[in-house]
Amino acid sequence: MYENYLVIFAASVLLALVLLAGLLLLSAGLRARFARVFSDVRLKLQQRRAASMTSLGDLQSTVGEGGRSWIQKQFDALARNKWLLLATLCVLATPLILVAILSNQISTEGYEDIPAEENAVIAQLLRGEQLVPPPPLPPEAFLTQEVEMVRPMLVSASRDWMLLDGEFRQRLLVAFRVMEEKHGYKMALLEGYRSPSRQNTLAALGPQVSNARAFQSYHQFGLAADCAFLRNGKLVISERDPWAMRGYELYGEVAESLGLVWGGRWKMMDFGHIELRRKGALGKPPATADGAEPAK
After folding, report:
1. Cβ atoms of 91 and 135 closer than 8 Å
2. Taking phi first (over 0 means left), then psi (-120 to 50 degrees means alpha), and beta for anything else, what does residue 64 get?
3. Which residue of 126, 163, 260, 287 could cross-link 255, Cys pair, CB 3.0 to 4.6 Å?
4. Tell me, what CATH number does 218's domain have?
């Protein structure tokens, strides 16, 4: 997106320089032709001004000779600086022309804060039965070396579905069902609700873990979840696994069709992260206050 604006700016500057150089290097014949054109325009303007002044006798008596003299000086100044005026108009018009030409090519990706409406099938699922969370995985599933390398401190994360916002919980469960029934991927919740103190602890580990502090993440409001896949009874988290990477792509599509935001589109890509955004939620403690966990 920013690259498009840089192109527009660079093209504007380049075109402005070309126009200025062209004005300075015009041949004497072309300059004379432009001078005649401006003289004709000036003459017509003066004629119209004279006609207007004739019909406004009362205004003439009020303004007086001094007022007409001031107007004449302005016209003379415009005539003396006609080349500068033309160059200025060209420079001002260039960005508008470029924006009009390139407007269809400018990407707004990243600014679509709230995703598109759910499609009919997903909406029907959401209006249907209240889905039940899957049984929890055994704690040892989160203690493997692979899991610890990819997601440090995951063993102490909360995977209590009932700490999630009710609406978000149902959308996440629908995503799990669609991923398994349509795409053949069985999913697992890695972390849901995250306390403010844990958020600060993860942020202290660096941006590769989290760049959000307490109440800057939807995890503190039960509106975000980190998920991965189950294959042969084991967690598969790393996107370096082609099978998992394809799963994340499908997961992102399903999540966005449910009106959720997928972390795989962020600059710091977080493929397993989805969240339900709500205006005004971030930046302050939730209604439970004091950083306490939300009621079940």
Report:
1. no
2. left
3. 260
4. 3.30.1380.10
Residue 168 belongs to some domain of the structure: yes
Contact 190, 159 (CB under 8 A): yes
**Backbone dihedral angles phi then psi of residue 110, each to the nearest 5 degrees:** 105, -20
* Under-70 pLDDT residues of the chain: 1-11, 13, 16-32, 34-35, 37-38, 51-68, 70, 74, 78, 81-85, 98-126, 287-296
- Within-domain flag for 285: no
Helix (H) or strand (E) holding 214: none
Strand (E) or helix (H) holding 230: strand 224-231
Q: Are 226 and 272 in contact (CB under 8 A)?
A: yes
Residue whose token pair is 């504007």:
12
**DSSP-assigned letter for residue 209:** T
Two structure tokens written together for 218: 């939807």
Contacts 24+ apart (CB under 8 A), 279-283: 281/218, 281/221, 281/223, 282/215, 282/216, 282/217, 282/218, 283/215, 283/216
Q: Which residues contact 117 (CB under 8 A, 6 or more apart)?
A: 259
3 state SS of 14: helix
Q: Which of 59, 77, 105 is the last residue of a domain?
A: 105
Any domain includes 115:
no
What residues pair up with 157 in beta bridges, in sequence order?
Answer: none
